[in-house]
Amino acid sequence: MMPHPASRHAQHATRAAFFIAGSSLAAWAPLVPYAQARASLNEAQLGLLLLCLGIGSLIAMPLSGLFASRFGCRKVFTLAATVLCAALPILASSHTSWVLAVTLFVFGAALGTADCVANIHAVTVEKASGRPLMSGFHGLFSLGGIIGAVGVSALLSIGLAPLYAALSIALLILLALAITWRYLLSHTASTQDGPLFALPHGIVLVLGGLCFIAFLAEGAMLDWSAVYLTQTQNMATAQSGLGYAAFALTMTIGRLSGDWLIHRAGLLRVLVSGAALAAAGVALATLAPSWQLALVGYALVGMGGANIAPIMYSLVGKQTTMPEAQAVPALTTLGYAGILVGPAMIGFVAYVTGLTAAFLIVAGLLLLVALIGPTLGRSLPQAQ
């Protein structure tokens, strides 16, 4: 019997789904240098290889809503999570570049599917519960990312082979799936027949654009914070990861506490204040006279930006312009395009105008989110 969307079982299953997606993605990161060494890839070849993951995700995301509509969230997510667990050991052991490329494409497609379906599931569960839950759901993605990355790194550091480290994380994911899969909804309120893919329009396009900016800022922190700290603020290379660590830690804390904050202050107030705080954090990190102060800036970016994307998913569940099974994948695709395309855009701008100017543009975009935020209440009167 399918659990009611508002039940605690359905809520816990949603949290497990986000944890699985986050830990799967993060588990791959420490394995990248090993894959590069085994396949004897130079930096350019590795870059092309990593692009396969992004291509797989972007292709699968728009299709995942159709699959969830026709087959149900439970079946689609279970299949995607199983594929993720099967792909990790191959990525951790293959010596052949084309095998790695194909597996990364499949891994990316499964990851994109799992992410979209988890968000469709989350929208349904949050609406049924009648209270803010989305930030906490996304917080489990961040927590899963920390556990996946730290777990694999710890296993590798004690001398475990990459294959066995990947198998260990895969078993953890399968265990989480086995405990909670029966509580995933077999069908959601958005279950329906529909087109294979629908272009976002109306308010969904606006929300997607804001989500793009939020994820672009996350991608900037991931790919460029260490470079900026070492090249501009003279931080030792061995310590340059502290910028992203400060950002990731405060983002996880911000998401885990976001539902409580939204319940008391309202969606739009948290969106506007958070985006403004994130913009100030980017500006501080960019213009700080010392790397110590810059770390404070990165922490502010994580805290302020933590709930922007979760709020976009909550708002897309309140709109009536597009069915959820189309709107959520469209929002996810636009958002993740920010992570994939954004850092490259920053690199191009930095090449032309310098990295400082590129970072200040990111701050300006986050400030734009804060300025647009209050106007969303006119298009979505039910947003509080």
From TrEMBL:
Highest taxon, organism lineage: Bacteria
PROSITE patterns to which the protein is assigned, alphabetical: MFS
Gene3D superfamilies registered for this protein in UniProt: MFS general substrate transporter like domains
Primary site of residence: membrane
SUPFAM superfamilies: MFS general substrate transporter
Domain Major facilitator superfamily (MFS) profile: 203-384
CDD domains the UniProt entry points to: MFS_MosC_like
Spans through the membrane: 47-69, 76-92, 98-118, 139-158, 164-184, 196-216, 236-254, 266-287, 293-316, 328-351, 357-377
Subcellular location: Membrane
Keyword Isomerase annotated: no
A Pfam family that the UniProt record links to this protein: MFS_1
Membrane topology: Multi-pass membrane protein
Keywords in alphabetical order: Membrane, Transmembrane, Transmembrane helix
Protein name: MFS transporter
Organism of this sequence: Gilvimarinus japonicus
